[in-house]
TrEMBL record:
NAD(+) binds at D71, G72, N145, D146, R173, D175, A210, Q248. Pfam families: NAD_kinase (PF01513), NAD_kinase_C (PF20143). It is found in: Cytoplasm. HAMAP family: NAD_kinase. This is NAD kinase. It comes from Paenalcaligenes hermetiae. InterPro entries: ATP-NAD_kinase_N, ATP-NAD_kinase_PpnK-typ_C, NAD/diacylglycerol_kinase_sf, NADK. Its cofactor is a divalent metal cation. Its main location: cytoplasm.
Length: 297
């Protein structure tokens, strides 16, 4: 057996998660797996008959983590387990589901096939970033999708000086900028008119959010580089800013603060049933199959 100990992590805010979670646990047990449930998931949905574990305990004990929820749940689990090399498989109990790619009605068949050894694995890159003020690191964090610098509250546009490996790239005034992994290219970056990157690319994506100068365009750079974005001022305009590491925010940035971003050393391994295709996901989620009808027909 490829995965002897399996953890289940759920979006416990969802009503009705208890029944499919218990059914999945039963499927795993029948396959001979030792099953554990993430502690908050078990507490909030009322699962008392299965062993519960913290994320640290899951990292130390589990061979596989099954995520039941939406992409946000998958991202949170990836961040919490990034240091433990536990592979993740996503069952969509949310809305769109780009990275929780298994439909809930196909969960038992798909997971059983994976447990039997029929699966594909791919490693997804992470970002690590830090906020620096006067040489002191104020905050650091990691992100699976993106690190976003944006204006705070109702303030005006923020100004950023952007450097790549200490080489000046450009200045920009905008509502913000998104620094994305290939995984995150189908999230906020896509909504801000960024390109879609294949998840196997070794690249970072910069996408401006509502830039003042329309010539500011998304840029793809090697992920072996370090990006440095410094909040600057222009004339009498000065704005604060927030930095978001996926779902974690630092909201006390000031003019002169610098945000350093690079690819993290750790990766996250995603497990998919055999036959998975990134392009199939795009066709299903973005309606790539739809061809505009001829108005004359």
């Amino acid at each position: 057996m490829h995965f002897k100990s399996v953890a289940i992590i759920g979006r416990y805010q969802d009503s009705g998660l208890d029944a499919p979670l218990r059914a999945l646990a039963n499927t795993l047990q029948q396959a001979g797996c030792h099953v554990m449930v993430e502690a908050d998931t078990a507490r909030y949905i009322g699962v008392t008959e299965l062993p519960t574990r913290t994320y640290a305990e899951i990292g130390a004990q589990a061979d596989l983590a099954v995520i039941m929820g939406g992409d946000g749940t998958m991202i949170g689990a990836a961040r919490n387990l990034a240091n433990y090399d536990v592979p993740l498989i996503g069952i969509n109990h949310g809305r769109l589901g780009f990275i929780t790619d298994i439909p809930i009605n196909n969960a038992h068949e798909a997971v059983s096939s994976v447990i039997a050894g029929h699966y594909q694995a791919e490693d997804r890159s992470l970002l690590e970033g830090r906020i620096v003020r006067d040489g002191e690191v104020l905050y650091s964090g990691i992100a699976l999708n993106d690190i976003v610098i944006n204006r705070a509250g109702r303030g005006g546009m923020i100004e950023l000086r952007v450097e790549l490996d200490d080489i000046f790239m450009h200045r920009q005034r905008a509502d913000g900028v998104i620094i994305s992994t290939p995984t995150g290219s189908t999230a906020y970056a896509l909504a801000a008119n960024g390109p879609i990157l294949h998840p196997c690319l070794n690249a970072l994506l910069l996408v401006p959010v509502a830039p003042q100068t329309l010539s500011n365009r998304p840029v793809v750079v090697p992920d072996t580089s370090t990006l440095s974005l410094t909040i600057t001022t222009l004339g009498r305009v000065e704005s604060g800013a927030s930095v978001h590491f996926d779902m974690q925010a630092w909201s006390d940035c000031q003019a002169g603060d610098r945000v350093d971003i690079r690819r993290a050393q750790n990766t996250v391994r995603f497990i998919h049933p055999e036959g998975y295709s990134f392009f199939s996901t795009l066709r299903q989620k973005l309606d790539w199959n739809r061809i505009p009808a001829d108005e004359n027909e």
